[in-house]
Design a protein that fits this description.
alpha+beta; 3 strands; globular
């Protein structure tokens, strides 16, 4: 199992929001909507973490 930064997956949703997720799946998901409900629960909206004033 990976740990640290390399264990995170960065995805966007159809609205352009960016999410950081900690999913253990080996298949490469390409968007937030393709994640299962359980996988989506491991994600955080990046703007909630760093705020929108930086973007």
């Amino acid at each position: 199992m990976k740990s640290g930064y390399e264990s995170l997956t960065w995805l966007n949703d159809k609205e352009g929001r960016e999410y950081v997720c900690s999913i253990e799946s080996n298949d490469r998901k390409t968007s937030f909507e393709l994640l299962s409900e359980d996988e989506q629960k491991t994600c955080r909206n990046v703007n909630e973490i760093v705020g929108t004033e930086r973007w």
